[in-house]
Amino acid sequence: MAVPHGEQSSFFRIEEPIPTINAPILGDIGIFSVATTTLTTVFITFLVVMLIIKSSRAKLVPSGSQHLMEIFYELIAKFITQIVGTHEKAKKIIPYVGALMVYLIIANLLPLIPGLNSLHLTIGGEHVLLFRGATTDFNTTFGLAVAVVVMMQIVGMREQGVFGYLSHFIQIKQVIKGFRHGIGSGMSALISFMVGLIEIISEFAKMLSLSLRLFGNMFAHEVLTVILLGAFAFGVPAIWMGMGLLVGVVQSVVFVALVTVYYSLVLKKEGKEH
Is 44 exposed, middle or buried (0-12, 13-18, 19+ CB in 10 A)? Predict the structure, then answer.
């Protein structure tokens, strides 16, 4: 039986219910269910929109906040350039992965803001966080992964042309041409055709790997935080919450690094490296 939120079972322990994989549902709007993570996602979106408005009002001589945003942009640009190899390639994907980095850092670190993680609701007799971490919900991480893969296909078709990009997956024309030049060439083209089909499966695998990695790490950290609160009310949870800053940033960097590698693979090959 869960102990009510904030009730101390002893001087050195505070017990809270272990978070469930499924985020608590607050209600329904038509066919859509509104969970606690939905509120967090809406709040994050609002913050991102505010940042966009702020950045659109940039001045030639930067103020304090603008200076911080420019430093953050330079760090992201340098990080992406180190992965893709050239500044030209980096400029093509910074708008996508840069926005993703901002979103993930806010999403991962938002639950650590003092006061925000103390807002609770009572649902079904249990106290639940009003703003549960967005990335501790698999629906959020899977949605991000789907958006990344879909956008990657769009970037690939824009860079290589629709038929040029799709020919990596469906190589029927190459098989026909191969058999026209002999059995050996035809069999080689047939193998390439099978590899193309595997590439299609790998695109779906990217969705699962990206979403599960982020969700698993962030959800595990949330569960361990509650467990530590149940064992030690002082000292250890504070240290662990500090580790949460590192976990949130590292998971954001890992997710963005993988996405950057995926995007770099669909960019048009440059004839000359700069």
Answer: buried
Tell me, yes or no, whether 6 lies in a domain: no
Query: Residue 227 in contact with residue 18, Cβ under 8 Å?
Result: yes
Domain extent for 43: 25-266
Domains contained in the chain, number = 1
CA dihedral for 6, 11, 17, 18, sign (positive or negative) = positive
DSSP state of 264: H
Residue 12 lies inside a defined structural domain of this protein: no
Instruction: Please spell the DSSP secondary structure of 30-51, one letter per residue.
Output: TTEEEEHHHHHHHHHHHHHHHH
First-to-last C-alpha distance (Å) of the chain? 63
Q: What is the pTM of this model?
A: 0.79
CB 193 within 8 A of CB 187: no
Q: What confidence tens digit (pLDDT) does each residue in 60-94 have?
A: 777 777 888 888 888 999 999 998 888 888 888 88
The number of helices, as runs of H, and strands, as runs of E, in the chain is: 8, 4
